[in-house]
Amino acid sequence: MPAKRIRPNRKLKPVTLPDKPRPGFIATIDNRTLLARALRQRFESIVNDLGGEGALSTIKLSLVERFVWLEAVLVKTEDGFKSTEADAKTLAVWIQASNAYHGLAKTLGLERTMRDPWAALDTRPQPSSSAPVEPAEANGNA
User: Which H helix or E strand runs over 70?
Assistant: First the structure.
C-alpha cells in the first residue's frame, strides 16, 4: 500500500486558542475543530443579541471578538482549576480576566436589542434638512 503523501506547501491553521486576541482570530482557527465552531457560534449569538452585524460599528464588532476570546480564556482557566489546585498566579490571571470580561459586557450592553426588520428594505429617500421650510402664515392660509 502506498504511503500517504502530505502536501509540503499546505498551510495548517491553528487548532488552539491564540495567546492574544488578534483581529479576525476566529477565522484563522481550523474550522474542523470544536473550538472554532463554538467560538463562531458564540460570536454570532452575541452579535445577534446586539441587533445584528449591520447595527454594530467596527469597534463594537472588535469588542465582541475580544469578548469571545476572553470568555474562552476564562473557561480554559476554570478547567485548570478542576484538574489541579489553583496557585496564586493562576487565580490572579482569572480575576483580571473576569474583571475585563465584566467591563466588556457592560460596554457592549447586557440587554438584547431588537433588530429592525424593515431597515434593509427601506429605500425611501431621507428628508433633506437643508430644504427651507415656509411657515403656514407665509402662504396666505392663515
Answer: helix 58-83
The DSSP element (H or E) to which 102 belongs, if any, is helix 88-108
- Whether the CB-CB separation of 50 and 104 falls below 8 Å is answered with no
* Domain layout of the chain by residue ranges: 25-116
Would you state the cell numbers that stand for residue 38, as one nine-digit string? Answer: 463554538
| pLDDT tens profile 27-61 | 888 888 888 899 999 999 999 999 888 888 999 99
- The answer to whether the beta carbons of residues 76 and 17 sit under 8 Å apart is yes
CA gap 64, 57 in Å, rounded: 11
Burial level of 3, CB count in 10 A (0-12/13-18/19+)?
exposed
Indicate the pTM of the whole model: 0.66
Q: Which residues lie below 8 Å from residue 73, measured CB to CB, with a gap of 6+?
A: 17, 97
Residues contacting residue 78 through CB under 8 Å, at least 6 positions apart: 94
| Ordered DSSP codes for 40-58 | HHHHHHHHHHTT-GGGS-H
Q: Which of 70, 78, 62 is nearest to 18 (CA)?
A: 70
